[in-house]
C-alpha cells in the first residue's frame, strides 16, 4: 500500500456532487418517517411545512457566512479551520471535536434504525427476521469498503442514493397531492389561521425540531479541497443542500396533510413511522410502497456513509496538523483518499456496535431518537460557533464581501442560531420525550460541555508543551516556520579616546599657562 503525505487531490468533485453528499447526510426520508408524524400528532398541522421554510431561511443566512469563510480558508477541517481563524485556536479545536462527536452520535443512531428499516423488507421477501446487529454489521461492512475509495466514486454512490431518495419522495408526495382527502386540496392544509393556535413553547419547539432536521448539511465544507473550485464549490453546495432539504421536508410534509386532510392528519399520524406508507398504500400499487421502504433503508445507509466520509476528513485534517497522530494525515497515493482516517473511523464504529451487542443492548426507535437528537444538538452548537467566527473574522479582516455578507447576514444568523440553541436546551425533555429529571436530559448538555472543555484544555496543553503544533492549528497543514531570535551580541566596551583627539589643534597647540 502506497502512503503519501501529500494533500487531498483537488478537482475531483463539483458543487452538485458535494450537494448530494450533504443531502444524504441530512437523511430527509428518516426525518419524514420518524419525526414528522410525531409532530403532526401534536396538532401542528400546516405549521410543520412552514417551520421547515423558516428553518431553511435561517440556515440560508448561515450559509452566507460559511461560504465566505470557505472562500478564504478551503480546508478539509471545515468548521474547525473556520472557527480557528475567527475565535482562536482553542475555539477551532473545540469546533472540530464537536463535529466529530456529533457526527458519530448521529451515525450510531442511524445504525440503530437500520434494523428497523430492513425488517419489513426481509420479512416480505425472505420471511426472516434479522437481529439489529446483523443488519448494522452489513451496513458497517459496506461503509468500511466504500469509505476508502476515491472521493468521486464515493460521491457517485452516495449521489445515486440521494437522487433516488429525492425522486421517490417526490413521486409519493405527488400522489398525495393528486388524490387529496375529500377530493380537493383544502385551504386549511397550508393556511395557519385554520389550525388551533399553539402556545409559544410549542412553537419554539417546532422551530427547533425543524432546524435540527438539517444537521449534516454543513458537512459540505469538508470537501472544499477536493472540489473543482476549492474556494467556491463547497460554498455553493451548502446553499443547494438547504434549498433541497427545505423543498423535500416542507413539500412532503404538506402533501401528507393534504392526503390525510387538515382535520384527520393528527389521528392518522398516530400510526407513527407507518404513516407515509399507509398513505402510499391507499393511492399506489404495492410495488411503489415496497420501493418507498427500500428507499428508507438506502437513505439510512447513504447517511451513514456520508457521515463516515465527513468524519474521515475531520480526522485527516487534525492528523495533518499533528493535533492527532500524524498517520491520520496521510493518504493513499493511488486513490488520494485518507485511508488511515477512514479505517480509524470504521474501527471506532465497529467497536461501538460490537460493544453494544456484547452488552445485550437492543436499540430501538427511542435509542435512535436520543442519539440523533444529541448529535444534532452538538452540530447546532457548532453552527453557532461558525456564525460567530464569520462575524468576527469577516469584519476584522475585510475582504470582497459587501455589508450584507460581511455583517448583516452573520449577525442575523448568530442571533437566530443562539435563540434556537437556547430553546433547544430549554425544551430538551420534550425533544427527547423524557421527564425533566431523567438523567439523559442532563447527560447530553454535560457531554457537549465536556467536549468543548476537553478540546480547550487540549489546545492549552499544546500551546504550553508543543507550541509549533499549536501554531499550526487551522492552517490546513501549512508548514509553520519558527525563526529563533538572534543571540545577544557581546557588549562592546568603548575604547578610551585620547583627550582632545577629536580636536587635533588642542593637542598640537598648548595653551599658555599663567604668567
Automatic annotation (TrEMBL):
The keyword Transmembrane applies. It is found in: Membrane. Keywords: Membrane, Transmembrane, Transmembrane helix. Residues 492-508 have a biased composition (Basic and acidic residues). Its main location: membrane. This is APC family permease. PANTHER family: AMINO ACID PERMEASE, AMINO ACID TRANSPORTER-RELATED. Residues 22-395 form the Amino acid permease/ SLC12A domain. Gene3D superfamilies: Amino acid/polyamine transporter I. It is a multi-pass membrane protein. Residues 484-515 are annotated as: Disordered. The keyword Cell membrane does not apply.
Amino acid at each position: 500500500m502506497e502512503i503519501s503525505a501529500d494533500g487531498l487531490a483537488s478537482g475531483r468533485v463539483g458543487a452538485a456532487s458535494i450537494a448530494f453528499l450533504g443531502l444524504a447526510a441530512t437523511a430527509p426520508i428518516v426525518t419524514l418517517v420518524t419525526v414528522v408524524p410525531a409532530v403532526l400528532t401534536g396538532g401542528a398541522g400546516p405549521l410543520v411545512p412552514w417551520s421547515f421554510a423558516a428553518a431553511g431561511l435561517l440556515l440560508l443566512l448561515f450559509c452566507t457566512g460559511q461560504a465566505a469563510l470557505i472562500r478564504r480558508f478551503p480546508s478539509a477541517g471545515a468548521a474547525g479551520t473556520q472557527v480557528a481563524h475567527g475565535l482562536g485556536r482553542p475555539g477551532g479545536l473545540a469546533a472540530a471535536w464537536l463535529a466529530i462527536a456529533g457526527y458519530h452520535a448521529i451515525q450510531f443512531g442511524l445504525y440503530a434504525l437500520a434494523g428497523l428499516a430492513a425488517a419489513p423488507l426481509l420479512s416480505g421477501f425472505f420471511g426472516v427476521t434479522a437481529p439489529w446487529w446483523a443488519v448494522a454489521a452489513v451496513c458497517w461492512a459496506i461503509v468500511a469498503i466504500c469509505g476508502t475509495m476515491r472521493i468521486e466514486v464515493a460521491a457517485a454512490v452516495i449521489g445515486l442514493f440521494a437522487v433516488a431518495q429525492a425522486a421517490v419522495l417526490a413521486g409519493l408526495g405527488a400522489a398525495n397531492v393528486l388524490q387529496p382527502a375529500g377530493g380537493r386540496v383544502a385551504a386549511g392544509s397550508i393556511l395557519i389561521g385554520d389550525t388551533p393556535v399553539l402556545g409559544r413553547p410549542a412553537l419554539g419547539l417546532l422551530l427547533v425540531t425543524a432546524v435540527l432536521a438539517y444537521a449534516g448539511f454543513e458537512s459540505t465544507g469538508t470537501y472544499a479541497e477536493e472540489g473543482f473550485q476549492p474556494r467556491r464549490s463547497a460554498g455553493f453546495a451548502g446553499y443547494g443542500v438547504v434549498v433541497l432539504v427545505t423543498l423535500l421536508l416542507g413539500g412532503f410534509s404538506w402533501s401528507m396533510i393534504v392526503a390525510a386532510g387538515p382535520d384527520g392528519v393528527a389521528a392518522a399520524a398516530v400510526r407513527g413511522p407507518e404513516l407515509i406508507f399507509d398513505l402510499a398504500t391507499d393511492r399506489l400499487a404495492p410495488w411503489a410502497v415496497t420501493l418507498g421502504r427500500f428507499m428508507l433503508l438506502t437513505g439510512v445507509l447513504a447517511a451513514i456513509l456520508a457521515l463516515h466520509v465527513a468524519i474521515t476528513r475531520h480526522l485527516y485534517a487534525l492528523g495533518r496538523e499533528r493535533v492527532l497522530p500524524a498517520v491520520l494525515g496521510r493518504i493513499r497515493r493511488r486513490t488520494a483518499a485518507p485511508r488511515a482516517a477512514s479505517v480509524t473511523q470504521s474501527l471506532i464504529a465497529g467497536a461501538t456496535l460490537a460493544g453494544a451487542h456484547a452488552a445485550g443492548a437492543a436499540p430501538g426507535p427511542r435509542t435512535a431518537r436520543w442519539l440523533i437528537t444529541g448529535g444534532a444538538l452538538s452540530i447546532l452548537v457548532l453552527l453557532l460557533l461558525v456564525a460567530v467566527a464569520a462575524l468576527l473574522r469577516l469584519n476584522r479582516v475585510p475582504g470582497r464581501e459587501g455589508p450584507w455578507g460581511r455583517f448583516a447576514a452573520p449577525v442575523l444568523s448568530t442571533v437566530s442560531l443562539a435563540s434556537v440553541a437556547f430553546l433547544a436546551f430549554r425544551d430538551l425533555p420534550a425533544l427527547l420525550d423524557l421527564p425533566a429529571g431523567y438523567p439523559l436530559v442532563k447527560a447530553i448538555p454535560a457531554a457537549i460541555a465536556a467536549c468543548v472543555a476537553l478540546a480547550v484544555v487540549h489546545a492549552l496543553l499544546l500551546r504550553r508543551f508543543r507550541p509549533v503544533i499549536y501554531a499550526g492549528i487551522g492552517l490546513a497543514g501549512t508548514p509553520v516556520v519558527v525563526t529563533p531570535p538572534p543571540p545577544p551580541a557581546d557588549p562592546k566596551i568603548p575604547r578610551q579616546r585620547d583627550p582632545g583627539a577629536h580636536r587635533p589643534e588642542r593637542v598640537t597647540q598648548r595653551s599658555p599657562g599663567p604668567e
